[in-house]
Write a structure and sequence with these properties.
Length: 162
């Protein structure tokens, strides 16, 4: 068979498929690493917050937002000081507010903020239905560093982020 036969075309197609599969594998590997890092960050923050259970607080992990299949608040911290809706982030760079929008790692996180506020409104409704003040419900982005800084500044192992 000459140079114009099916083998060169099939080899070219196989190389293209190989490139696509390699790109998909690399993307899946990066996503796996991000989820593993997120899981570890949540575990470390939860471990820091568990000391509050000795002081009448309850820590509820992975609370699904009603009406959604996957959207969650990483944790709800419920106690004498109110209800904190926590979303743990491990951004490479410190988040900043730019023109009224949350930015981290060079990206806007408006959708993240909307989701956290929606979960906070849901928690406020639940708190109000119990006859308690919804003012005590606060959204909070948290990182392990936030907790360590607070503890170092106050000399306490208890964490209240406002």
């Amino acid at each position: 068979m000459g140079a114009g036969g099916p083998a060169p075309r099939r080899a070219q197609e196989a190389r293209r498929q190989e490139r696509l599969l390699r790109e998909q594998w690399q993307a899946a590997r990066q996503e796996t690493r991000r989820w593993e890092a997120a899981s570890e960050g949540e575990r470390r923050v939860a471990a820091q917050l568990l000391v509050l259970t000795e002081r009448g607080w309850r820590l509820l992990a992975a609370r699904r937002r009603p009406g959604t299949r996957t959207a969650t608040a990483d944790m709800l911290l419920v106690g004498p000081g109110g209800v904190f809706v926590l979303d743990v982030k491990d951004w490479l760079a410190s988040p900043q507010i730019v023109d009224g929008r949350l930015h981290a790692d060079g990206e806007s996180h408006d959708a993240h903020v909307r989701g956290l506020l929606e979960m906070t409104r849901t928690a406020e409704g639940a708190v109000a239905s119990l006859g308690l003040s919804p003012v005590a419900v606060r959204p909070q982005n948290a990182s392990e560093d936030d907790i360590k800084i607070w503890c170092a500044a106050t000399g306490s192992r208890s964490i209240l982020m406002t």
